[in-house]
Amino acid sequence: MASATHPFLSTYKTPPLTLVRGEGHRVCDSDGRWYLDAATGIAVQALGYNHPRVTAAIQAQLARISHTSNLYTVPVVRELAGLLSQTFDGGAVFFTNSGVEANEAAVKLMRKAAFRQGASHKTEILVLEGAFHGRTMLGITMTPKAAYQEGYHPLVPGIRVVARDRVAEEIGPQTLGVVVEPVQGEGGCVPVPNLAGIRAACDAHGALLMYDEIQCGLGRKGVLRILPRPDLMTLAKAIGGGLPLGAMIAIKPELQEVFQPGDHGSTFGGNPVSCAAGKAVLEVILEQRLWENCALLGARLSAGLRETGVSVTGAGLMVAAHLGRPSGPVMEAMRARGVLTVGAGNEGVRFLPPFTLTAGEVDQIVEAFAQSLSA
Ligand SMILES: *Cc1c(COP(=O)(O)O)cnc(C)c1O
Questions:
Q1: Domain span holding position 202
Q2: Which of 8, 79, 322, 349 has the most CB atoms at less than 10 Å from its CB?
Q3: pLDDT tens by residue, 280-316
Q4: Residue at 133 is within a domain
Q5: Closest CA to ligand 1's atom 15
Q6: DSSP label at 68?
Q7: Cα distance between residue 171 and residue 202, in whole Å
Q8: What digits encode the pLDDT tens for the residues 341-352?
Q9: What's the CA-to-centroid distance between 308 and ligand 1, angstroms?
Q10: CATH number for the domain harbouring residue 316
Q11: Which of 288, 308, 332 is the last residue before a domain boundary?
């Protein structure tokens, strides 16, 4: 039974910590202990906690106007969309509240594009083994993991799972689109091979290429614009600066003409306060070229972890150590040493630290990991 002390459905394990504050790269628990957060709320707090520019932008927008719906426009929403468009190849933006809603919007856009073109043979959307695209019915259909799908059938039709290293070969005339996380996050920080071959096969068969950059995007992978360029992409997590925000960006010009007024929508999507946070986040990333820091310190982190003898995968500041045994005890021991991480499957420890990480902090993370390996 729910109670005042446990008023939740049991979707999550009982959290080990109650966090009361965050400042920079650290969070403080209810006993006053501080931790270096190498998980950033699952790849969300890319600039750390309470970043002065982000907090000031949120406070200012909150005091101006916090919600209008899409019946009206608010300058900061347009400004963030403009900045995203400039950054991502002149794309056209649709804002959502979350990552999975951005993916949902992308799939709807691809389907509507085929409908408008009378391409009724293009029914199939390919997703990759090891992918994670969210937890709605469409999200779990696109996430080929038994534990996430079991008990929820029937799933959404028209989605086919293909092997990660055979994507290009599976694309055919019936393929409407291919959805790829350039670096698979929940799947264990696995870079997807042969993006160029996938791009070429999409072009050969008139299929659309979509990148889910919700976890690896905005520079975390070590580059800002992932090549080759997709036809459409989704962002969330880091873009909101800690507030809920997602974006679907239609890059291919023809895709920008597909949705007409009334074809899709969201009451809260593009909330002005979230967009103010997002604009501050993106401006700081661009001004400081933080993807370069992600590449540099990601290499240091990967090398340091590898030196402990474990297998390491990832790109930039999106790194997983694979232990070959349950990783829970190691993560717990790291927490006791003041470093927070997140799992990658049962046997992985995932590192998603802030883009502004320092070399000293990398060494602290690696040292805590090395000391915890015997746990
Ligand atoms: C987190 C994540 C999602 C889902 O985002 P939500 O905001 O939880 O809906 C989708 N795709 C990827 C790659 C993610 O990491």
A1: 52-288
A2: 349
A3: 999 999 999 999 999 999 999 999 999 999 999 999 9
A4: yes
A5: 215
A6: -
A7: 7
A8: 999 999 999 999
A9: 30
A10: 3.90.1150.10
A11: 288
The reply to whether 350 and 263 lie within a common domain is no
Return d(Cα 181, Cα 209) in angstroms, integer: 11
Q: How many residues does the chain have?
A: 375
Looking at residue 6, its pLDDT comes to 82
pLDDT tens column, 23-41: 999 999 999 999 999 999 9
Domains contained in the chain, number: 2
pTM for this structure?
Answer: 0.98
Is any ligand 1 atom within 6 A of the Cβ of residue 199?
no
**223, part of any domain:** yes
Ligand 1 mean position to 121 CA, how many Å? 29
Residues 43 and 57 placed together within one structural domain of the fold: no
Closest residue (by CA) to atom 6 of ligand 1? 99
Q: In sequence order, what are the residues at sequence separation of 6 or more whose Cβ sits closer than 8 angstroms to the Cβ of residue 89? A: 225, 229, 251
Cβ of 98 less than 6 Å from ligand 1: yes
Which atom, in ligand 1's list, is nearest to the CA of 131?
13
User: Does residue 241 line the site of ligand 1, with CB under 6 A?
Assistant: no
pLDDT, tens digit (0-9, with 9 covering 90-100), for 116-143:
999 999 999 999 999 999 999 999 999 9
257 and 168 fall within a common domain: yes
3-state class (DSSP) for residue 105: helix
User: Has residue 354 been placed in a domain?
Assistant: yes
Distance 134 CA to ligand 1 centre (A): 5
Is the same domain home to 248 and 310?
A: no
CA of residue 374 to ligand 1 center, whole Å: 32
pLDDT in tens, 294-304: 999 999 999 99
CA of 180 to the centre of ligand 1 (A): 13
Q: Is the CB of 214 under 6 A from ligand 1?
A: yes
Q: What is the mean pLDDT of residues 145-151?
A: 97
Clarify whether residues 79 and 163 are in a common domain.
Answer: yes
CA distances from 276 to 61, 190, 283, 321, 367 (A): 6, 32, 11, 35, 37
- Side by side, the strands of the sheet bearing 311-315 are 311-315, 318-322, 348-351, 342-344
Does residue 133's CB lie within 6 angstroms of at least one atom of ligand 1? Answer: yes
